[in-house]
UniProtKB/TrEMBL annotation:
This is Mitochondrial peroxiredoxin PRX1. Pfam families: 1-cysPrx_C, AhpC-TSA. CDD domains: PRX_1cys. Signal peptide: none annotated. It comes from the Eukaryota.
Length: 230
């Protein structure tokens, strides 16, 4: 892998690169798939592997919560869609899920390369042919097709679907109310008035805000006003 050029680095704020791909739900053009929705694109190193199996079952079970927030899920694994099809049956059997979102067949790592998901550092993280596995990446993409969050986990560590949902709630609530969210925030907890809002405007928008320091102003924001409402 060392001599191959690396994909253009993606940063928060980059436009999610477009691609055409085969998926378990038919061919897609990624930008058309995004449409006016939020999208979570997440990758798996390989089909029929233990950690990935547990992750996909968990994402499938939480899908209704993502859908309620206008978020579409799409997975990727570096095998064919035929292989994915058999694996999905196992996932549903093991997890009691009904996995209905598409999984990209990325056997040749085309999308993984485009999204810089290949593990170039851990030389032991390779398949039986010595080709680098994808890492466990998560991209949170907004309806403007802007990448808002990137997470990278090693192959050995399963992700936390509740954290992915929490990130969506933070981003959507922040966009709507001009707030940021503190450490370990959960919908219903106090939020932080965005630093760009002066105190005069803050009083108008958040009559109950409290100034702990001039740069740290908390305000209550009931769960009903967040994207986690209902
Ligand atoms: C897993 O999903 O368990 C896994 C996949 C690739 C490498 C190591 C673990």
């Amino acid at each position: 892998m060392g001599s191959e050029p690396r994909a253009e680095p993606l940063r928060l704020g980059s436009i999610a690169p477009n691609f055409d791909a085969e998926t378990t739900k038919g061919p897609i053009n990624f930008h058309e798939f995004i449409g006016d929705n939020w999208v979570i694109l997440f990758s798996h190193p390989e089909d029929y592997t233990p950690v990935c199996t547990t992750e996909l079952g968990a994402f499938a079970k939480l899908e209704p919560e993502f859908a309620r927030r206008g978020v579409k899920l799409i997975g990727l694994s570096a095998n064919t869609i035929e292989s994915h099809g058999g694996w999905i049956k196992d996932i549903d059997e093991i997890s009691g899920s009904n996995l209905s979102f598409p999984i990209i067949g990325d056997k040749d790592r085309k999308v993984a390369f485009l999204y810089d998901m290949l593990d170039h550092q851990d030389t032991t993280n390779v398949d039986s042919k010595g080709i680098a596995f994808t890492i466990r990446s998560v991209f949170v993409i907004d309806p403007k097709k802007t990448i808002r969050t990137i997470l990278s986990y090693p192959a050995s560590t399963g992700r936390n679907t509740a954290e992915v949902l929490r990130i969506v709630d933070s981003l959507q609530t922040g966009d709507k109310h001009k707030v940021t969210t503190p450490i370990n925030w959960l919908p219903g907890d106090d939020v932080i008035v965005h630093p760009s809002i002066n105190n005069e405007k803050a009083k108008e928008l958040f009559p109950d805000f409290k100034m702990v320091k001039p740069y740290l102003r908390f305000t209550p924001l009931p769960k009903e006003k967040t994207s986690a409402a209902n």
